[in-house]
Amino acid sequence: MRTRHVNLLITLIAVVLFSFSCFCISRMTQTSNQLTNCRNHISEFKESILRLKNKTERNRQELLNAFKEMKLDISEKERDAQNAVEKKVNASDTNETVSDAFEVLKFFFPHLRKVDRIYPDVIMGREKTGVTFALGISTVNRGNYSYLKQTLTSILSRMTLPEEKDSVVIVSIADSNENYVKSVVDMITKKFKRQVTSGSLEVISIPAYFYPNISHAARSTDDSEKLESWRIKQVLDFCFLMLYAQPKAMYYLQLEDDILANKMYLTKITDFVHNITSNNWLYIEFSVLGFIGKLFKSEDLTDFVRFFLMFYKDKPIDLLLGDIFLVKMCTPGEALEKCIERNKHIRIRYKPSLFQHVGIQSSYPGREQYFKDIYY
After folding, report:
1. Cα(296)–Cα(294) distance, integer angstroms
2. pLDDT tens digit string along 175-190?
3. What are the residue boundaries of the MGAT4 conserved region domain, all occurrences included (predicted)?
4. Which residues touch 49 (CB under 8 Å, ≥6 apart)?
5. Contact in structure between 184 and 148 (CB atoms under 8 Å)
6. Which DSSP symbol is given to 365?
């Protein structure tokens, strides 16, 4: 009996343990499923966070790129605007400077005081400034003769490219004959297109209103009056050209439209000027003939023009150039030898000459000339 009770007890305990085990296994299975679900949720959350982070990073990068593009666009617009303003200001300053240079004319010619702005007719050119040398050539109609193309070919072909870049050749048409003006423009356009395009060659014409009333002398039947009118006009032509060139360069070289240049002439001029120890010189002669090959400091041109205009009716311009030294360097009563000796330090002559006169037909109608520079 006792044994049976013990067996019942053991059976009961076994049933209870089995039931508890089943319960525990069931609970553990549920917990495991919950953990698995939890892990899945966590993984999904991480993936969502990662996708959001990537999306945010892309948005951030896109925003930065947009800001960079906006900044670059704004900078370019500001730079373009600044360049446009500077270009306009520089052009305005250049024109105003050249125009101001011509204001001195109003002191000598009352008829110009009514003109608001004295300025040449710029036919071709880029109004180049800031160079070392400006070379001035005044030209007029010589009828069936013309030496201008030969002169320009010599002047331009005997420059190096750096010298051409650092200089400007100015052809001033001092003639109202429209056919002649057109022929000069056509010739230069065809023959010297590269130099015109680069700004190293300019063509201007002197406006008719510039000249005082000397037409009566030009129409006179008296040869002496015609010659006087021609000389007067020649002085005025040179003065106008010098005033136009003055703000463009450091030095101004006066040439004529019927000359030839020596090889490497501008290199020789540059070296000679740089080797001069004193800066007190007024001009340097690179030819002994007339007004050819005279080099001036541009800062002195206005003073020269003022002197020429005071006596433009009295003498040709090359003789007036010599008179300047008598006025500036010679004192009354002193020996001429002393004056001449002082002149050597401010009126310098270069040898051999770098320019030769080749024109036979003079710009004065009907006259022939055979002047040659013996030092060339």
Report:
1. 7
2. 989 999 999 999 999 9
3. 97-375
4. none
5. yes
6. T
